């Protein structure tokens, strides 16, 4: 599946996360993509994995593993850290979530099922995150890799700044 979790007015390569959109659609598209992928690949989309993805899709911000654990516990899925870590590991491994290293937290993938190199814009004031698609083989990084004979297999770009909702706060 190559559709993205975004408003129909947003172009496929545009960032997803800071704009107003049909949030209910985000959740249904994301869960549907995960369900279809798991069925096609013979993977178990267990209730705890599904709930973890649903929680990430509801937020549009990165959640730490312990915050996820609290939410899963509140939903009746146990209170041991491996519950959250295993669910998040599955979601990341199958392209339904990403780990934001700077925040040591996880966010639902805005382009489920699409092979892509994510670029994250992280608001330093509210920790909201928007995801865009990067092109690691292009630009100066791609040039440097080709010049050294290096083959880029994966990149993750994390940019820190201020989101539109916090722009006024940053000026104060």
Main sheet attributes: strand count, strand direction, barrel closure: 3 strands, mixed
Tell me the CATH architecture. Answer: Orthogonal Bundle
Overall average residue pLDDT? 82
What is the fold-level CATH name, i.e. the topology? Arc Repressor Mutant, subunit A
Give me the number of helical elements: 6
Count of folded domains: 1
CATH H-tier superfamily: Winged helix-like DNA-binding domain superfamily/Winged helix DNA-binding domain
Q: Beta-sheet strand percentage?
A: 15-25%
Top-tier CATH class = Mainly Alpha
Distance between the termini: 43 Å
Alpha-carbon Rg, integer? 17 Å
Shape: globular
Q: Which structural category do the helix and sheet elements fall into?
A: alpha+beta
Q: What is the H-and-E element order?
A: HHHHEEEEHEH
Poorly predicted ranges:
1-15
Helix content: 40-55%
Strand arrangement in the largest pleated sheet: 4-3-5
Quantity of strands, as a count: 5
Structure commentary:
- The protein is an alpha+beta fold.
- The chain has one domain: Winged helix-like DNA-binding domain superfamily/Winged helix DNA-binding domain (Arc Repressor Mutant, subunit A), CATH 1.10.10.10.
- The protein is 41% helix and 15% strand.
- The chain has six helices and five strands, in the order H-H-H-H-E-E-E-E-H-E-H.
- The strands form two sheets. It has a three-stranded mixed β-sheet with strand order 4-3-5, with no helix packed on it. A two-stranded antiparallel sheet has the order 1-2.
- It starts with 22 loop residues before the first helix and ends with a helix.
